[in-house]
Amino acid sequence: MAGRVTGKVSIVTGGASGIGRACSMLLAAEGSTVVVTDIQDEAGSTVVAEIESAGGSATYLHHDVTSEDEWKAIAASVMEAHDRIDVLVNNAGIGIGGSVLDFELSDWQRQMAINVDGVFLGMKHCIPGMRDTGGGSIINMSSVAGLKGSPRLAGYHASKGAVRLMTKSVALECARERWNVRVNSVHPGIIETPIWDTVGAALTRSENASIDVDSMAQVAVPTGVLGQPTDIANGVLFLASDDSSYMTGSEVVIDAGMSC
Hints:
The structure is a single chain. By secondary structure, the chain is α/β, with parallel strands linked by helices. The protein has a single domain, classed as Rossmann fold (3-Layer(aba) Sandwich). It is 47% helix and 15% strand. It contains eight helices and seven strands, in the order E-H-E-H-E-H-E-H-E-H-E-H-H-H-E. It has helices at residues 18-29, 41-53, 68-82, 105-132, 154-176, 195-204, 213-220, 229-240; strands at 9-13, 33-38, 57-62, 87-90, 136-141, 181-188, 251-254. Strands 3-2-1-4-5-6-7 form a seven-stranded parallel beta sheet, with helices on both faces. Strand 1, helix 1 (18-29) and strand 2 form a beta-alpha-beta unit. The N and C termini lie far apart (38 Å).
């Protein structure tokens, strides 16, 4: 399966559904060996089975991105099995909303642990393997929410803004140390993924409420079009490939003009 990432070994966190699933499928289709990690074991195993049935190479590992011990184990396992880590897609994330006046500290901390700590730990434990085997590409999933604000989502915006600036800092460190590790962030707009099932309650101010994402996109997105996970996966593929070899510390915004 010759392609744009042939021979590369990629880790995709949160790879069992949504954007992570699309990234896993596309990277594998373009020749990468993909390590899919998630806490959704059945869905993650299904993604691997789909990749393998299409002729690709993939494995699934259970992975709580907030656990440093699990990150150590993931990085060590991939290095032992493949002798290298070429691509890390820090995709795992959640969205919890609500008024700043009654937002629970426990929800704030959980969201930051997954969305921010998970990205930090991934870079901390995967960069050494990349550095020692010639370099690599790290793609951190931020959001249009890392570029602008909206009401009742202070914690989510804070977490995605943190990912944006953490990406730039680590990109500069890797560049100046000459480790040949590129670090970039991706900023999706309104994409059709399961995250809207949880964010909907915050934005509609009612518990267990979902959102008509198509209708929201028609209002909030200049093109009026709801994005698909594959739209983001195509950007991730570019950053994972050698086509983007001169890019580091960049913000790749894929939002149909929403942040303009």
